[in-house]
What we know:
Layout: H1 15-30, E1 66-67, H2 71-76, E2 79-83, E3 89-93, H3 106-116, H4 118-135, H5 143-166, H6 179-196, H7 202-207, H8 215-218, H9 220-235, H10 237-258, E4 264-268, E5 317-321, H11 336-347, H12 352-363, H13 368-419, H14 424-436, H15 446-464, H16 466-478, H17 485-498, H18 501-519, H19 527-560, H20 564-581, H21 589-593, H22 607-622, H23 624-651, H24 670-681, H25 686-695, H26 698-727, H27 739-762, H28 766-785, H29 788-807, H30 814-823, H31 844-856, H32 880-899, H33 903-928, H34 930-945, H35 958-986, H36 988-992, H37 995-1015, H38 1032-1036, H39 1038-1051, H40 1055-1076, E6 1082-1083, H41 1100-1104, E7 1114-1115, H42 1124-1135, H43 1140-1149, H44 1166-1198, H45 1208-1222, H46 1235-1244, H47 1247-1265, H48 1273-1301, H49 1309-1330, H50 1340-1346, H51 1360-1371, H52 1373-1398, H53 1416-1427, H54 1432-1439, H55 1465-1502, H56 1508-1521, E8 1528-1530, H57 1534-1540, H58 1552-1557, E9 1561-1562, E10 1567-1569, H59 1570-1582, H60 1588-1602, E11 1613-1614, H61 1615-1677
Antiparallel strand pairs: 1-2, 2-3, 4-5, 6-7, 8-10, 9-11
Helix pairs in contact: 3-5, 4-5, 5-6, 9-23, 10-11, 10-13, 10-50, 13-15, 13-26, 13-55, 17-19, 18-19, 18-27, 19-20, 22-26, 23-24, 23-26, 25-26, 26-44, 28-32, 32-33, 33-35, 34-35, 35-37, 39-44, 39-52, 40-42, 40-44, 45-51, 46-48, 47-48, 48-49, 49-50, 52-53, 52-55, 59-60
Amino acid sequence: MSVLPEPKGLVPFTRESLDLIKQHLAKKQHDDHEEEELEPNPDLEAGKKLPFTYGNLSNGMMSVPLEDVDPYYYMKKNTFIVLNKKRTIFRFNASSILCTLSPFNAIRGTSVKVLVHPFFQLLLLISVLTDGMLMTMNSPPKWVLTIENSLLGIYTFEIFIKIIARGVWAGPFSFLGDLWNWLDFSVTSFELMTRYSLLKTPLFKTIRSLRVLKIIPLNQGLNCLVGTLICGLKKLIGAITLTLLFLSVFSLLGMGLFMGNLKHKCVHWPQENETQHNRTGNPYYIRETEHFYYMEGDRYALLCGNRTDAGQCPEGYVCVKEGINPDQGYTNFDNFGWAFFALFRLMTQDYPEELYHQILYASGKVYMIFFVVVSFWFAFYIASLFLGILTMIYEKEKQTAAEKIKMTEQAFQQTVKEQEGNDASETKTIQIEMKKKLPTSENTSVDILEDATLRHSKDHQKSKNRSPLCCHKFAKSFLIWNCSPCWLKLRDFFHKIIMDPFTDLFLLVCIILNICFLACEHSQMSVNTYYLLSIGNLVFLGIFTAEMIFKIIAMHPYEYFQAGWNIFDSIVVFLGFSEIYLANIEGIALLCSFRTLRIFKLGKYWPTFEILMMNLGKSLASLKDLMLLLLVFVFFSAVFGMKLFGWSYTSDVCRIDRDCLLPRWHMADFFHSYLNVFRILCGEWIETLWDCMAVSRQSWCILFYMMVILIGNLLVLYLFVALVSSFSSYKDFTTRESNEIKNVQLTMERMTKGMSYVLSKLLCKKKNVQMETNDHVSDTYIKENISDHTLSELSYTQDFLKDKDKSSGTEKTPLTEYESQSLRPSLSASETVPIASGESDIENLDNKDIRSMSGNKDSKEKIKPSSSSECSTVDIAISEEEMVYVHDKLRHLKSGYRQGSSIGQISKQSRRRKIWQNIRKTCCKIVENIWFKGFIGLVTLLSTGALAFEDIYIDQRKTIKILLEYSDMIFTYIFILEMLLKWIAYGFKVYFSNGWYKLDFMVVIVFCLSLIGKTREDLKPLTSIKFLRGLRVLSQFERMKVVVRALIKTTLPTLNVFLVCLMIWLVFSVMGVNLFAGTFYACFDPTSGEKFPVFEVMNRSQCESLDFNESVPWENAKLNFDNVGNGFLSLLQVATFNGWIDIMNSAVDSRTVNMQPSFESNLYMYLYFLHFIILGLFLPLCMLIGAIIANFNKHRIKQGGTNIFITAKQKKQYRALKRLMYEDSEKSVPRPRNKFQGCIFDFVTTRIFKVISMALICLQALTLTIQSDGQNLQMDVFFTWAELVFVILYSVECILKLISFHCYYFTIVWNIFDFMVVVFSITGLLVPVTIGYYLVPPSLVQLILLSRIVHILRLGKGPKVFHDLMLPFMLSLPALLNMGLLIFLFMFIYAIFGMYNFAYVKKEAGINDVSNFETFGSSMLCLFQVTILAGWDGMLHAIFNSEWSDCDPNKINPGTQVRGDCGNPSVGIFYFVSYILIAWLIIVNMYIVVVMEFVNITSKKKARTLSEDDFRKFFQVWKRFDPDRTQYIDSSKLSDFAAALDPPLFLAKPNKGQLVALDLPMAVGDRIHCLDILLALTKRVMGKDERMDKVLSEIESGFLSANPFKITYEPITTTLKRKQEAVSATIIQRAYKSYRLRQGDKKASESQTIDDERDVQGAKEDVHFEKVKEKSCAQSQI
């Protein structure tokens, strides 16, 4: 068969080409054998530019059919290509079927030329953009209809051209082969039907908005990106399925716990002398909503519950299940659909605090556990899951793009080298040959085509540079000023001034002062302050103007504007003068805000800021397609929502507003619809969805919102992952310094030298001589008293550490500096008193290095890990006696050197020294004793836990109060005793050089101060610092210490990045002060608490003139922009999306100072907050998290790739957990010998039984989904019988397994779990019958049975994808638990702090009967809300009540002596802001741990490396093939064994050739040993890796240690030799057979003659025999 030649160049597509393709396809169908598989070239896809390797495009090659340059399509798809002037590839099908014209038809050729023309593409793009702009008009004028008709004609013409050019259905490149064409055809058809028929339904008009999506196929970058996301979406299918499973399970759990509870309300109950009238006539049936109890300001009735810890009704009201559910009836757990909706809301963390309070009010505080699991761990896991998968997708795409660029560069460099010897004449000859299309065109060299391409690119570059060349000449002539010698002297003078280092320092100081002046602006400034700031503004503007002028003179304008910072400086100066010029024009506050750009001038002297901005610019440039796609989607969603729901909002607005006015968040116009979509993407969607469902169809609203949430969040998360990945390359920026920075450093050095010189003249140095003498004597004494071995070891260790510090000097981070200053003691010999081994804070790597080096010195003593004080960096091998002796002797020698001593005095001192030495040794042993440590840890926990009892009811519990007072004294004495023991054991210097001991000392001081505060009334505030006791827990538990160290390592080096983010916030805060300072004031009605409408009260003077019984308040919003501090707090609430709607409402309603706000009078101030969320929140968050990830990866690599948030013990647990996750927990159970039991065993262990078991579990879950609140009696009976049936079936399963497994049943964890489910479910059925139905929840049995659904996550029983998705989270559990403990500790400390400061705050806003600081439990509820960033704005709002108008400072609180219910705003701000930062920092690191585990597992799968898990899986498969554990398998089973392995050791069939090539040794009986197979497969996987020899030796040693009784053998051959022998034997046999055949022909002829002779001889013998016989017969007769 002849193979079709691959096209190597651009060849016209002719009829001969078409015939050749048809012949090839016919032969391909006729032949049975497989051809080599081709793949499409991604560089030659339709829509991309033709690579320049294919040469120049002549006019004859444009817009004409050419043979496809991609062999895949050319040989398999029957296609041709057409190129336009921009070298864009258009691919068409060549077959003529289904009304498709021939490629050589004139009509089709004309249509193709029109379709591929760039002008046609531009016309379509302009049409789509114009159409999109017209769609945003709510009430368009009449002329818009003409434009729309014209656009509709263009779209129809486009479809007509595409159908002719591509054909209707002729292959993948026909009109219907592209899904975008389906969309165009559908939209155009509906639009024609709507325009020219009577079917003018709103839905048909809405479909027109799909036209916006046409931008995607018109842009190749967007089109490719959509394809990438769709491919990535396939990888998300498993995660989406797992999410739906979890949501369903939690929904069923919520139904079982809370079904119908949210209808419980407090209803007024009539008294004996009171009558109630209603429609039923029954006085006990009260349905009217006016009889419900409402809290002040609440829209819905107060919820209540029948539990003691649930919400209680006030006096005169009873808790009755009546009315509808909250939030217009949309929030409930009454059926599976609404429960699923509520759980989805909790998962996305939208307004969770409201649902949280509703459930706790109606069901009880004990159900906080449900919300902790769902709102924290479940939501955290789902977010980590999607972030991890998106990170893997992006990293894969990034790696593919990098490899592609690398290959392109290599090919280009190789092409350039090969082109050097080519001549132009050869190129022309080859082009002529290509045009003639000779058969030898296959030999055309791509390299020569690349030569033409290179020349074309050079010519193109020259033509491109012609116009800049003219500008360059103009700039050289007019922008370089070398006029006269006087001018040059003036230029040199200014150059010296502007380039002087002190000038840069002066400018830096001016910038900092200008920032301070900007930050000092505030509302209601005095005249002097305003005048001072105005003068300062003019002065700084003059300084910056002088800087610009001096630089222009010194550098010429041409050189000045070459630098980006100079251009920025000139823009700042220009805006400053524009502000002065337009100062008298009203409404230029926005122009004044540009003054904040001066803050960014600081970046010139800040390398971190400069490089972050450069990295940001590069990242945004590379992600432009992704950002454009996100913008297109938001625009489309806004238009689609406006078209779909706009009419409903205007017509049915009375359903959501009593005054029939549109709310703030609606979709009646484009701007509000755009804001609504943006709010949905920010995570705030539930409230607007309620309004949408009230005015329109619920199904349409839910589908629209789910589309925006899912697709929009996917794009946002992908953009977030991409930006974080780019910023994760963050490094120490101090290595990059500009000239300005060098000048500032030089100036500071000069000033330092000058100051040191002045100080040296003023200070005398006489004391230094005596100190040097004492140090010399001390050193001499140490050398005399310490053995040579120890001294050499000490010096060697110190030298090693010095060399290590020198070698890592360039890599030093702020963390290492911090450790060296605060966490490491000095290395003097007097500080080497040993401490407890558990207290050591030395890194494992350093210990190993030091031990190895000390071992090389042939030391006699081994260094112990606990031989140095905590946080030290060396281990000194000195005995305890020597160390204590040296310390005391040294101190005694110093005193004796000054005073002198006699021999008797020395002997007394030696005895005292021995006594003191024994005391210190005893103290050391006590402190290092494990029981002592355990006792101190227990006391620490008790002392910390005792704080939880000091709530507002402590004065009413006299016994507990007395016990707490005595316990405080006992705890204080114990901790003081511990501190004294450590002082004696370690000495003061060592003790206070340890960071953790400093913390312990601080806590002891806190204990003492709290005891002192109880003695006197004026010192009582000292008792409020007792909450700091909890910090001592940090130093007592290694898990928390590890987390704290890791957090310091990952976050402290990012301080520069944090300051950059803070600077961006400062810009927005100052801008907010300029825009909104003093404008948030409003006049409120004292009776209703609402604002007066603007037509009643216009300004402050009218408000104050109103005559009411009490003064009408002209109040300011509690969150405002009156100064920079308040601006920061407001921006923090916007950044956490808590209370940000109220802040935006105040800003949008604001007018001017002392003017009453009007509804949306300043509508476009929404844009300020939109820009802050994008530029001030999203981008800085990406920077900061990227920097944290960079430090995390750096320190993880330093620790050998292990997690930095776990201890050494947990690293072993991590490996055990990994082994457990990879292995099936079911242990092999022997089959019973009894036939009956054996039959049951065979049935129970079959795959069918497991499938039946899983089917029953899923069926039981499905039956729960059809339950609902208020169902009829028949349904109740059905579910009761269903419960009974499932309990019986599960019991039968349990009995069958018990019969077949015997005692082995309880050796499997899953069996124990199933047994407990059966026991509890039977108990749940029997208890209500015996005791009563009121003591047991009706859904208890259902929930117990539902718990068996966890089997679906079990390895080997559920889908493998679920196990793979759960694996990273499970492997991260040790680190997550450590960080969870730290979060709990801080929650505990802050809860106690809140009890001491906010226990009596007035209950309003976020502080109510459930969330308050009265008790420890309620405080923990509040802190849990703040941890998930939910509702903290309401708590802060209540704490802001500090004035007489808001609270009562003299209010009597029953049961306590504390008066008042006012808050402390400053303490509240510090409280919430500090806790949010700490919690956010820990949670971010928790996300990083899980996501990095995802990436780590993926990278290990891709890398050619093997882990313990791969070897473990190998031996698991080996057990199946070698059940008798002979360590051998037969060579015939080798192929099946290799095919049964898991990747990367896996070898797919047919694999016999690959196995033979491994050359495996074979023993007697053609058996192969286990170790030989493992070693060979490992060598095959790792290839030429440098670590291969080490890995092979480790495998062999590990196998020998695991199998000490290994059967020794000597191989007699190998698989390769055996194959060679088999081949040789086959050859010999074939040769022998052919020889025998040849010999057989010869023998056949000879055998015939021999047979004839034998017949003659036989006849003769017969005659002779007969004669003899006759003779014998005759003789016998005679």
